[in-house]
Amino acid sequence: MRRVLLGTFLVLAGLVQACSAPFLHPLATDRNTVYEASMIGTWKEVDPDDGAKENRYTVTRAESPGGGADRYVVEVRYRPGDGRELATARIDAAHVRLGPLEFLDFSLSESEREKVGDVARMFSLPVHYVMRLDRPNPEDQDIIRLSELSGTWLDEQLRKDDGILRHEHLDQDKLLITASTDEIEAFFRKYGATDEAYSEFLTLMRDNPNPPGRIVPTTPDRP
């Protein structure tokens, strides 16, 4: 049984919870992917109760090899659960816009896959994790909120309609979404604005905020 390698990195880095469902196929396509300069920079994780945490997420631009919209490379500095010194992981991300909704489609960078060795790569799946991107204040581009698809909500929907999103159950009841890219896009277009479908998980604030009132133009949605 192939294991989900990206999930291990994202759980350790605090980006997703262990119960989050990975996608075998991407949500991102050249048609729905955009690039926003306002995402570039270093972001710090903020807890509403405890304030800033030590996790840092540095976003840089990655040119698209296929001529489509550029993507992002996210360098994550995090402290592993065993309390060791801060570790670093590099994750690729595509910025997806579906009408008024925004998402980040995360996948493990090739440099990280190379670190685990050839044998581990043979028995690991190159999966994707999708998180909804919200801006609490649309005019403030220095704070964003990332929300993951709720495993509890998804389980409830699948019990009602097993065909809502093609999937397979892996070992230990781990869910793998096997739907095609078109099916995934249709799913998020239908349920993307349903707040109950997500669990608010991560609030990020820019480490070096833009001057007040400065708004960087965004790339419009593609037809």
Quick description:
With 223 residues, this protein is of the alpha+beta class.
Shape: globular
Percent range of helical residues = 10-25%
Specify the biggest β-sheet: 8 strands, antiparallel, barrel
Global structural class: alpha+beta
Euclidean distance between termini CA atoms: 39 Å
Order of helices and strands: EHEEEEEEHHEEEHEEHE
Question: Which percent range describes the beta-strand content?
Answer: 35-45%
Describe the structure in your own words:
The protein contains five helices and 13 strands. The protein has helices at residues 5-13, 110-115, 118-122, 151-160, 181-191; strands spanning 3-4, 33-34, 41-47, 51-62, 71-78, 87-98, 101-108, 124-125, 128-134, 143-149, 167-169, 175-177, 198-206. Helices cover 18% and strands 37% of the residues. The chain is of the alpha+beta class and 223 residues long. Strand 9 (128-134) and strand 10 (143-149) form a beta hairpin. The strands form three sheets. It has an eight-stranded antiparallel barrel with strand order 3-4-5-6-7-9-10-13. A two-stranded parallel sheet has the order 1-8. Strands 11-12 form a two-stranded antiparallel sheet. The chain has one domain (3-206). It is globular, with a radius of gyration of 17 Å. The longest helix has 11 residues, at 181-191.
